[in-house]
Amino acid sequence: MTADTERWSIRLWPRTLRARLFVILLAGLAIAHVMSFTVLFFERYTSAKSVMFNTLENDIATSIAILDRLPAAERPEWLDRLDRGNYNLVLGPGLPGNPTLDATAAEIASKIERAIGLQYPVTVVDIPGPRRHLQGHLTLSDGSPLTIDVNPQGVMPLADWLPFVLVAQLMLLILCSWFAVRQAVRPLVNLAAAADTLDPNRNTPRLSESGPREVAYAATAFNAMRDRIAQYLEERVQILAAISHDLQTPITRMKLRAEMAEDFADREKLIQDLAQIESLVKEGVAYARSAHGNVEKATRIDLASFVESLVYDYQDTGKAVTAEEIDGGSIMTRPQALRRILTNLVDNALKFGGSAMIEVRRPAEDRVTIKVLDRGPGIPEDQLNAVLKPFFRLENSRNRDTGGTGLGLAIAQELAASISGALTLRNRDGGGLEVELVIRLPQA
């Protein structure tokens, strides 16, 4: 098989499991049906052919015997009575023809010769023309010429209704194949959809555990896996919360002792390090809670008022935060999660750009876009996705004053997913970063 043939075979072969099963099942049933029809037709063809030739042989022998015993004057009156569907008798020498016969004509000629016997020598010829037929020329006992005009019809002519039956059978095969494939593939589709939307933090419907035994077993195992994942995430939050609680007390004591101690060379550095450790612990727990434990219920808010309130809070503290093109309307969302997302994005913009601008638009009824823009240094194109991962910082110096803990954008990403949103980062023309939050709104 050549490379081109292989490529064409790959393109023609369906890509989905449903289509492949449908093609295989339909092809198998169609081939089996054709084979059964062929065997049945061949058997009927052989039987009908044998009956036809035997009938032809007996009828011709009887007809010639009757005509031979009748007076010459009465023979024309009997011609119509002796006519059959596949042959008729003609008084006279007949038409000249081709003595070379094909297989079917030779078989018919042998039956005619066997029927007449040696008493009436016969010559069978093929008569050319628009209507193909054979003629057997012989002479009766009184010397009168007689012609047997044979019309070799089909052994089993097709009935007019047979094509409709075949089409109905084919449609039935297609319908049964489609239904069988649908029943077989639907559980896989449901399982794939449940796996794709798997989120133990949301109160999504559990996978139905009804149906065939194998399907019910797979659904039960999937639901059990989902419960275990939710339990593991809950345990992670509890462990991190316990660690945070246990660490904050000694960290606070160490800070107080360092502040109350007499001045020494590394006193300020020690206090700064303890503050950074405390910040890292708090943000680590915040990230864990953002990935799980979404106990906040969705409420309806006016997005314009919500964003303006956030902007005013920053402006009251002297931060350069502005809002433009606010067009959000009323939406259903988790306000605390949305506030934390925007706070992290604005803080990031202020840290690296010195100012932040928020844009809110509603391009469709089921979608809201919120953009946070700055004029900072931006992010290298090959690291735009990497900065959304936890504990990833661009600066090699690991300076927490400028590089942070690497959790701000990761927390925003996790919280965005919890409110059916997604973050997209892109560099702005002329410098700076644009972070776009697209929120999919539930349909009323």
Structure description:
With 444 residues, the protein is of the alpha+beta class. The chain folds into three domains: 1-185, no CATH class; 226-290, Helix Hairpins, CATH 1.10.287; 296-440, Histidine kinase-like ATPase, C-terminal domain (Heat Shock Protein 90, 2-Layer Sandwich), CATH 3.30.565.10. Helix content is 54%, strand content 15%. Strand 2 (123-127) and strand 3 form a beta hairpin. Helix 2 (17-69) packs antiparallel against helix 5 (162-196) and helix 6 packs antiparallel against helix 7. It is rod-shaped, with a radius of gyration of 46 Å. It starts with a helix and ends with a strand. The relative contact order is 0.06.
**Helix-and-strand structural type:** alpha+beta
Overall geometry comes to rod-shaped
Q: How far apart are the termini?
A: 56 Å
List the secondary-structure elements in sequence, H or E. Answer: HHHEHEEEHHHEHEEHEEHHEE
User: Quick check: average pLDDT?
Assistant: 78
Describe the main β-sheet briefly: 5 strands, mixed
Strand tally is: 11
Tell me the count of domains: 3
Q: Please state how the strands of the largest beta sheet are arranged side by side.
A: 6-8-9-11-10
DSSP helix fraction: 40-55%
Number of helices: 11
Instruction: Show unreliable segments.
Output: 396-400
